[in-house]
Amino acid sequence: KEIDIKNSRVFNDLIKDISNNKLNYKDLSIIIDELETLTVIDVNTGSRKSKMQKEDFLLGINLELIDFIAYNLKLRNIGGMCLIDFLRVHDKEKITAEMQKAIEKYQIEAEIFGFTQMGLFEISIKRRGDSLKTSLRKRKLIS
Prior knowledge:
Strand order of the largest sheet: 1-2-3-4-6-5
Structural class: alpha+beta
Strand content: 15-25%
Number of strands: 6
Low-confidence stretches: none
Helix content: 25-40%
């Protein structure tokens, strides 16, 4: 049986999710901005509040979102230079180690450079064809 995929509610919901730069994870969020030569990911606390010490609170959010970020890098077939703007914390080695584990978990061929002097996390991911967004644009499924 043939299906008119463009008129499928499930397909349209999926396309809307892929087109959206802001992704929610529980009460947290990340923003993925795919540019031609660079992908930038911004980590946000969303609506989460805490009474714990600020440093521990922010580190916990960063660590909680690492797997979600790696999953989306794989799902969206993002390659090339990638900068992640994690929330500012002192324990950058822990974030680097956890990101390395997540990259290995999702079998992403990448080189981690760590944090820049501005506090951005640098990673270079081997390109494997077009990103999901680029592929969908070429097929005129998203604009």
